[in-house]
Design brief:
16 strands; about 260 residues; 8-stranded antiparallel beta sheet; mainly beta
Length: about 260
């Protein structure tokens, strides 16, 4: 997932002209490329190498303006889960991303990721996490992996199966906001249609906020038998999204189902 801007140059030279002789010149070459866009939904994930290993995750939104990168992330370790951690940093010409926290009293979190020499639309790469200061888990130094995720936007359809081999047909029409809120979270909206056969199914409005992956929400049907559902959808990988839904209902589509949905 990746993109780097390079500056190229053109040279032109001309040999002195002599009477009766042809002029000799070298050709001019010009090449252009674009600056990488790291604006979007990000997750930094690592396995903390302490005596009690645990996954450390930082999720949220990054914004790039040229090589300057800023963002707001939240984490599951060391700091409160709902604490907004502001970061500022840069992306160098070799694809090295460096982010440093700017609003933690008595603590500094530094995230790095090497995104490679060629960065596509979505970026990813290995790096490090370092925490210094007074937090109970400092100091921390660990390997980490950064991922920029594609927006969870589109119509995704497919078959979902339960552990008892029952199946339902799912169609999720989803739209992720193009920008995050002040907490670094993206809004998600749309509908989820579940069908277990002719005349049997529910429609659920979808709404909520998320960062990283997956998106999860509790839904209430507005069409079909009264039902509630817990719905989860991963971020797109190519044209595929992994999804699961647990439906509580007196109707025919009750149960827990999971499967891969394909973007139409």
């Amino acid at each position: 997932m990746k993109r780097i801007s390079l500056l190229f140059f053109a040279l032109a030279a001309a040999a002195p002209l002599l009477s009766g002789c042809n002029a000799m010149t070298t050709a001019t070459t010009t090449t252009t490329s674009t600056t990488p866009t790291l604006t979007g939904n990000w997750e930094f994930n690592t396995l903390y190498p302490g005596p009690a290993p645990q996954n450390i995750i930082y999720v949220g939104a990054l914004t790039s303006q040229g090589t300057a990168i800023s963002g707001v992330l939240r984490t599951n370790t060391c700091f409160a889960a709902n604490q907004d951690i502001a970061f500022a940093g840069s992306l160098d010409a070799k694809g090295n991303l460096t982010l440093t926290s700017t609003n933690l009293s008595g603590n500094v979190v530094t995230l790095t990721a090497t995104l490679g020499s060629t960065i596509g639309t979505l970026a990813s790469g290995p790096g490090t996490l370092a925490i210094t200061g007074s937090t109970p888990c400092a100091p921390v130094t660990a390997s980490i992996y950064g991922n920029q995720f594609a927006p969870l936007t589109g119509t995704f359809t497919g078959t979902m199966t339960s552990t008892s081999s029952a199946t339902v047909t799912a169609a999720a029409t989803l739209t992720q906001s193009t920008t995050a809120n002040s907490d670094g979270l993206f809004s998600e909206s749309g509908t989820l249609n579940i069908s277990a056969g002719a005349g049997c199914g529910d429609t659920f409005p979808v709404s909520g906020f998320f960062a990283g992956s997956p998106f999860s929400a509790t839904l209430t049907s507005n069409s079909g038998p009264p039902a509630t559902a817990t719905f989860s959808a991963g971020v797109p990988y190519g044209n595929t999204v992994s999804a699961s839904v647990t439906i509580v209902s007196t109707g025919c589509a009750a149960g827990s189902f999971a499967g891969n949905l394909t973007k139409q």
